[in-house]
Each structure stands twice: as structure tokens, then as C-alpha cells.
């Protein structure tokens, strides 16, 4: 995480530098065009600093340092490449002007220096963006591994409580079901089918399933149905039918959950349920903003609420919508 923070800070510094270089290039280009028009000898090189693109690169870099999403990183990399090409063309056009005897040498030398600095900053920014993307991918992988580990611990706790005959809120919200699944394995797993099946099933964990109306936490007892898989037409994937036992987190409407508060907003409270699942609890309509602010809610505290609805985004991340109990 520290490495990612350093990369973001470096990227932000370079972006500010690019904004300054872009503004200075535009100013120099405007001065060059003005002096050239007064002498009626305007050339393409006089206007080239204006469209160098460093200003746009800098603004996109600031957005990238703030958002750090894949789409923004791709956009910033594209801007840096365009800025790099624009800087090289700018340098060549201005260099051609310097050779003319009737040009202002100091003005064009300054424009060439800015172009060189801009080219260097675009190159460094592209490299830093690749490093940032790699760091973010590693962070997401570690978070995924942590969540999977937590879900397995949670499922083991549920099974242990059920064996002992104990009743707990966690056990009442989790169900063990046997499922028949269709899996398409890559040829990579031809000699290690079980590993490939586990990879496919792991990808479905902690994602809300509309068919199950819940979130698979863990699985066990993988069995391949049939002796052989199928290959269809010219596709390389091996299609298998498998069955496995899944532990499903499936809170029902009206049930009571307990979450740890991680966000307090004007109209809702954000909670983390069982250390895995996000919940949003709306402010009761009868409470005024002052009463809501003075209700004693604090970050890190526990909050008991009633489940109203289960939602999920396109990535399958579960969001539990709830309301405070009447008491």
C-alpha cells in the first residue's frame, strides 16, 4: 500500500508539472504567433506549442491519481502517448524555425526546452501508470484472498455451530445446499481438472447470485458427473457437469442483522456485516437531522437493523438495505 501511495504522489507531482508545461507552451505559442503575424511570416512551427497536449495530460493525470480505476488509467496512458507524439512533432517544427535567420531564437529555444521536458514527463507518467495498475491489481488480489479466507472461516464456524446444535445469527442466515453446475474449463487444466474446477468455483464466491438469492461463501465435496467432458465444434474449452455443496449467506427480509458502522452520512449509515458484506441503513423519516446527528452513532460501533432488501451491482457485490428497528 505504501508503494502505491508513493506512485500516486509521484504521478500527481508529474501531472502538476505537465499542467505548468502545457500552460507555458500555450503562452509561448501565443507570443510566437503574435510576433509572426506582425511580420506577416507565420509558419506552422509558431503555433505548434499551443497544441502540444501537455495541459490535457496533466489534468488527466490528476484525475488518474484521484480515481485509480482501470478506465481512467487507460485514458491517461492514451493521453500521455498522444502528448508524447505531440511533443516530438512540436520539437521538430520549432527546430525547423530556429534555422531561419529571421526568427526569435530565445523564444523558440524556450519552446524546445518545454517540449523536451513535456516528452520526458509523458514518458515517466506512462511508466508510473503501468506501475500503478500493477499495484492496484495486486491490492485487489490480496483483498480477494482475504475475503475468501474470511468466508471460509465463517462457513467453518457455521458448520461447527450446527454440529453442536447451537443457534446463532450467523447460522440462521447461512444455508448449506447441494448444487449441480456446468463448468467450461480451459485446455490449460486438461491434466488437472480439479484445480480448474476450483478456480471456476472460487470466481463465484462472495458474488450475489440471483438464482440462489444469496451469496456463496464456500464449497466442498466437488464431484464430476460422468466420465468425460464435452468439446463443442471448434471451441477449445472442456465442458463438465459437476456437483458440490455450497454454504450460502442468505438473509431474509425482516431478519435482524448486526453490523459494524464504517460510515455515517446525512441520510444513512454504512455498516459492514460479518466483516464481509456492505449494508446501508436509512435514517428514520420521523427523525430530524439534529436528532439523527445526536443519536449516539459512532464509527466502529455496532448497529442492529432489520433487513429490507438485497441488492447487487453488475460485479455481484452485495448491498444489504435495512432500516432501524422500531424500538
Characterization of the model:
Belongs to the eukaryotic RPA43 RNA polymerase subunit family. Pfam families: RPA43_OB, SHS2_Rpb7-N. This protein is of the alpha+beta class. It has 3 domains: 2-139; 174-249, 2-Layer Sandwich (Dna Ligase, domain 1); 256-324, Beta Barrel (OB fold (Dihydrolipoamide Acetyltransferase, E2P)), CATH 2.40.50. It is built from 8 helices and 8 strands. The strands form 2 sheets. It has a 5-stranded mixed barrel. It has a 3-stranded antiparallel sheet with strand order 1-3-2. Strand 4 and strand 5 form a beta hairpin. Helix 1 packs antiparallel against helix 5, helix 3 (54-67) runs antiparallel to helix 4 (70-98) and helix 4 packs antiparallel against helix 5.
Name the features.
24% strand, 327 residues, Dna Ligase, domain 1, alpha+beta
Q: Helix count?
A: 8
Please state the overall shape, judged from the principal axes of the Cα atoms.
Answer: flat
The mean pLDDT is: 80
Question: Assembly state here?
Answer: single chain
Q: How many domain units?
A: 3
The major beta sheet can be summarized as: 5 strands, mixed, barrel
Percent range of helical residues: 40-55%
Protein name: DNA-directed RNA polymerase I subunit RPA43
Family: Belongs to the eukaryotic RPA43 RNA polymerase subunit family.
Organism: Clarias magur
Pfam families: RPA43_OB, SHS2_Rpb7-N
Amino acid at each position: 500500500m505504501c508503494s502505491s501511495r508513493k506512485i500516486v504522489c509521484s504521478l500527481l507531482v508529474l501531472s502538476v508539472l505537465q499542467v505548468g508545461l502545457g500552460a507555458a507552451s500555450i503562452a509561448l505559442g501565443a507570443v510566437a504567433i503574435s510576433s509572426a503575424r506582425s511580420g506577416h511570416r507565420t509558419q506552422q512551427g509558431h503555433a505548434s506549442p499551443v497544441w502540444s497536449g501537455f495541459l490535457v495530460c496533466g489534468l488527466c493525470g490528476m484525475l488518474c491519481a484521484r480515481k485509480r480505476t482501470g478506465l481512467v488509467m487507460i485514458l491517461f496512458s492514451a493521453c500521455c502517448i498522444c502528448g508524447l507524439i505531440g511533443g516530438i512533432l512540436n520539437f521538430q517544427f520549432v527546430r525547423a524555425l530556429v534555422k531561419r535567420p529571421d526568427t526569435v531564437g530565445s523564444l523558440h529555444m524556450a519552446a524546445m526546452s518545454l517540449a523536451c521536458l513535456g516528452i520526458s514527463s509523458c514518458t515517466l507518467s506512462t511508466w508510473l501508470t503501468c506501475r500503478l495498475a500493477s499495484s492496484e491489481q495486486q491490492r485487489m488480489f490480496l483483498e480477494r484472498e482475504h475475503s475468501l479466507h474470511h468466508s471460509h472461516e465463517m462457513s467453518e464456524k457455521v458448520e461447527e455451530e450446527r454440529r453442536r446444535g447451537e443457534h446463532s445469527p450467523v447460522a440462521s442466515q447461512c444455508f448449506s445446499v447441494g448444487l449441480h453446475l456446468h463448468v467450461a474449463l480451459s485446455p490449460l487444466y486438461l491434466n488437472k481438472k480439479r484445480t480448474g474446477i476450483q478456480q471456476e468455483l472460487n470466481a463465484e464466491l462472495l458474488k450475489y447470485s440471483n438464482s440462489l438469492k444469496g451469496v456463496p461463501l464456500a464449497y466442498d465435496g466437488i464431484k464430476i458427473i460422468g466420465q468425460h467432458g464435452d468439446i463443442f465444434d471448434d471451441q477449445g474449452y472442456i465442458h463438465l457437469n459437476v456437483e458440490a455443496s455450497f454454504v450460502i449467506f442468505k438473509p431474509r427480509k425482516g431478519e435482524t442483522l448486526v453490523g459494524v458502522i464504517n460510515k455515517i452520512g446525512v441520510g444513512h449509515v454504512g455498516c459492514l456485516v460479518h466483516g464481509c458484506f456492505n449494508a446501508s441503513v436509512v435514517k428514520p423519516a420521523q427523525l430530524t437531522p439534529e436528532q439523527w446527528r445526536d443519536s449516539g452513532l459512532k464509527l466502529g460501533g455496532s448497529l442492529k437493523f432489520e433487513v429490507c432488501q438485497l441488492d447487487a451491482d453488475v460485479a455481484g457485490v452485495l448491498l444489504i438495505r435495512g432500516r432501524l428497528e422500531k424500538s
